[in-house]
Fold each of these.
Amino acid sequence: MKPKTFILLASVLLMTVSGCANVKPWQREHLADYTMSADRDPLGTAQMEHIWFSREEASGGRGVGGGGCGCN
Amino acid sequence: MNTSLLKKLTIATLLAGTLFTAQAALKVGDKLPDLTSFSLVGPLPAALKGKIVIVDFWASWCLPCAKSFPVLDELQKKYGDRLVVLAVNVDEQASNMDSFLKKHAVSFTVVRDAGQKLVAQVEPATMPTSFILDGTDKVRFLHNGFHGEDTRKEYISEIESLLK
């Protein structure tokens, strides 16, 4: 591997690794907030699902429920 | 900077990251750290030696924690002096804990780990996490999360086994 290529790859790798945040379970107060929940509006979600299904023949794939607090 | 030095630096950085995220947590068989050295807010129980202790790490924003409180309260009342339930709150704001406790009044001891120092050392994997200690401060059982009646039965079974 050429030095320049290696430097480029190493730089990308280091930037990627340093961008990772490990949020501990006891630090998830803000993640557990109601406003962080993707499914906080069930009616709106159902409407969007209906639109997607009708127009794009696609449904689901909206991720898992909950706000990511790590509670069980 | 030559390539081999860069390679070494890259590997060292990755290893450092791995070590940082793989800190040891309190496990079954370990001894609970000395609680008096963590500046916990609130009075600690007078004596833990010789008693079964449930140390429960919880937060006001954690729904399973709210579900676990009535069960822990029931256990405290059921076993009386033979059991100490010590709930360690890890909220950032004391007011959140206070409003939670107004809604979920309990008879057991609640202290607050205001600086999150104890919880950082114990490193519970989930909220809540509870440790059941024998009379010598040694962790004998560990519960990640609270799973309703299943966890309640496990608590009772484990406490009974320690009382024998």
Amino acid sequence: MRNPKLTTALVSALALGLLCVPGGAAQSTDVAPQQSARGVIRLRVRPKIDGKEKGLARKRFFLIAGSLEENRALVEAIERAPAVSRDCYYRRIGASASLIRWLKENDCESVYCRELEMADVEGPGAVPEFQAAWAQGRKEFGSTELALKWITVNLSAELRSGFYKKQQETLSALLKQAEELTRAKPVSVMTDRNGTAYFTDLAVGTYVISNLIPVEMGQASLLWNCEIKVKAGELGTERPFLISNQKGGNVKCVSIEKPLSSCDGAAQRAARPALDSPPVGR
Amino acid sequence: MRRRVITLCIIAPLLAAILICPRRSSNAFETVAPQQTRRRQQRRAPVSRTPPRDYSRFSHATPTHKQQSCNACHDAPTANWRAARGFPDVADYPGHASCIRCHRQQFFTGARPPLCAICHTRVAPTGDARPVFPRPSPFRSQFAVEFPHDKHQDVIASHAPPAENGNEARLVKASFTTSIQQGSAPVKKYNNCAICHETDEGQPQAPPGGWRDGFVPASKSFKTMPRTHASCFNCHWKSQAPTREDCAGCHKLSAAAPAQPAAAVAGLRRISVKFTHAREQHTAECTTCHINITRASTLRGLRPDVPITACASCHKTSTDRTTATIETELERRRKDASFTCAKCHTSDLGRKSAPPSHYALFSD
């Protein structure tokens, strides 16, 4: 303590500083804070399928800043965007009829959808593409089980993720346009098995909710582009934003429904015996 | 005066020793080949500003190591994959050839070369015992894993609602996957979160300092996280990028995200520690509660990934006023500031001020 005066001055200044810190650590009273300037949207997607309402599971929805009017150019682009149906895609790449049937029966968009079983590679229900990949895997890994578990590593890129990538091309272009138009990155969530999804921590304002890429439902495709307002402090626990393909009491957004496009010439190719030599990976 | 003389006597010989003696330790560990090093040593011999390198510790982050491709050292798969993993994997340390290319000098330094300690448990030229690869806790990984949840959820997404409700509930309860029951045929396993996150049957590991309030979560309270390549290589072994040869596709050197000890990753902090996945009412699909996970393009920034909104659908209020709910606990807190919310939290969090999100549930 060479200079006691200086030390005292420093300590006093420090103490004063600590006392002046806003919202000091000593504050512990539990008073309900002011209403948050953020909000939540609870989305419920429940279209009617064969007259019965069902939750649309595992579909991605996007939230774009601004009103429908402000996003008119984007909405028009979404409606115009080329949509390739699942069946058409797989027919175009020469997938076997068995694989197309497998995807359809399992409600799958890709081969990653579910674990494969022996019945998928052996016996009357076997899929030629899976059989070839399985055989290759057995050679490579020396194990029947591992070859089955890792079957996708021996499928061609087109079969594995081609449909996903095709959709991503369209999606990326639309998202880029949305970002340029609104100067904000659209957020997205996927519905759960009941068709419910949440957009959380949203700034108060008007948004467009859209699935950007039409959802296939039977022989039709469904596309939603609707406006939604987020209010301060809204947590979406009471009132969901109900989406459907038909008008109804609480439905706030109805889809644009279009018949699935025909697969140009793909049916012919699909009927060919090209199925004996399915595309298999490296 | 006498003190100054003593200090000078100590410092002067020390300085002389540093300046006169040739530098013994090599700096080749992270920079150049031995030949170049010798030339550099001759030029720089008189001055040594850097401390000797610790060759017993390996860093992926040195400039020379960063320049190497991963497969310059790591084999994928390693020869021991069948015994070690049961699937093709990087299951062992790189061989001597990977190191000796640049570190011949350190390899043959004395009877106990420090370099050996990187991979071997016994530091001696004859010892070959090694710890498990990769090293178990409390080893600090030098990499952070980048995993885009959103992409993976899109790829495995089902095409349409998979089944009627009655079926789903039972199967979801068993495995957190949705499945289809076709007559008496075996249940089909649809890929979902459960392909990476299974129910952890083991007893949860206590956090540092032990469990709060003596509350020990039961087994099955938590889900597992992938610890090996088993959940990755089944798709990304080859062709599907990032493949086994592109380690950096998933493993990012942790300059941006500081390396975490494996133990810290193992015991991710849960705010509502009293929640258990195993409880019969908590067997919904993962994304029913993890409502932010499907928008996550990385593993970072998911705080919290189960917001109160997800809990509120069941725990906001109750007709039975004796049941603890968010409403009853907040009411008690309003009346008594010292009240500790204990339905979901232990006292370390339960006695803190409730966040605005909790009050917002009742703002309508």
